[in-house]
User: Fold ABC-type transport system substrate-binding protein from Bradyrhizobium elkanii.
Amino acid sequence: MTMTTRREVMALISGALASTTLGGRAFAEGPPKKGGTLRISAPANPSSLDPATGGAGSDHAFLFTMYDTLTEWEFDTLKPKPGLAESWKFTDPTTLVLNIRAGITFHDGTPLDAEAVRFNLERNRSDAKSNIKADLLSVAAVEVTGPQQVTLKLKTPDTALPGILSDRAGMMVSPTALKAAEGGVVTRKPVGAGAYSFVSWADGEKIVVKRNEKYWKPERPLPDAIEISIIPELTTGARSVTAGQNDLIYQLPPRQKVIIERASSVKVVHGPTLYVLQIFLNWAKPPFDNLKVRQALNFAIDRESFVKAALAGLAEPAYMNLPKAHWAYDAEVAKLYPYDPDRARKLLAEAGFKEGTPIELGGYPDQDSVQRQEILIEQLRKAGIGVRFVNAPIAEASAAFFGAEKKGAGLLSAWTGRPDPSLTYSLMFTKDAYYNAGRAPVPGELEAAIKESRASEDIEVRRKAFSTVQRLVMENAFVVPLAFQFELVAMNKKVQGYRPNLLGKPKYDDVWLGS
Assistant:
């Protein structure tokens, strides 16, 4: 395996937003132009094209094409900025007023007015089928206070809401389509107000969207259409780009970077992200209902070696759900779980856990996931922990673990990040959150600290609250974070204007196709 030097890794990070290169030469981009079909290789079939009911973080790459959000975020900082809401204001700590842009319609012609926004927010926070109710727990009521104005009355102060409304909770779906849809969900017939409208979905094969000619952003989008091919094996997806069958592949595995850069027609864009590989734990279910077993798992993993072996060094070892560069990172929390297999064995013995007892974990069947599983099996074996992975495609495995089936004690997957860190913690570590697989209770002080992190707009007050949140999550070992993976996107020379973002979830706002 080719080792990556620290200098090379730092170059990747510092160059995240630098200009792209082609074959080692500066790659010039001309003036944007309309036309053409952008062909993308995607690693997973979406779980749903309804933003409220889907359960996989990988869905965003599809959802962002069809649904606009009430707020958006800056690509490099994730700072909220206006979206469908042209402005917002906290008129007091428990009142948020959103002013909706006038003249926007959904793809089916339904007006995107205050009533449509109210309908969506009420559905997202209270519908039994919604998987994003936890995003809007602070909202007590949603009121129409003008033709294009919505006022959110809050149970408690929540300064994270502008960031939250740039994610699924802020994706607006046509109320007309929802009322007409069977079961009130638009899983396979999405109708949003985004840059592209839905054309077709061949399950497990391809999703096609076309340009929304009435889109509200001037001169956007630029391509006529986007065709997204589902290619779970990333090596095959990379070949489809070098061979010219597709134009772009995202979530490229680190081991592919050196290989794909050899193709003279391909350029690679890279940047740091919040995307963290981790083992989700069901702490309502044996053996992870025992704190010492969860802690042992964290001590048993050599994260530095994992990064080198599984990610070619192109990642940051993860000791919590925020990377070093994040403003809320806590260096003291990062010291809680140094690699210590002897201590792991001791904790297991104290827990009465018989060495070698097999633990069933869920996982995915692609080459990179299987390689990570093999590395973890060997590391955990050295601490007396035997694990067996049961693999299924991303959407199926995620639904089996987080949904009603509650299959397996853990899931090796990834947390794809959220614009505001309080959303990350509330979605995983509150009692009724979808990503709390067992819907198990958490310490009251943790839920209080999460609320505190959203009570003030003062960054230092928030930082202090997040220190408490992160400490409580990791002291209780509710998760086993492994590594923050860099975004790697490869594209052919026709693709212009692509920019990476800190979430590591592709958006095609300014992408166009050259000749």
In short: Residues 194-271+486-511 form a domain with the D-Maltodextrin-Binding Protein; domain 2 fold (CATH 3.40.190.10).
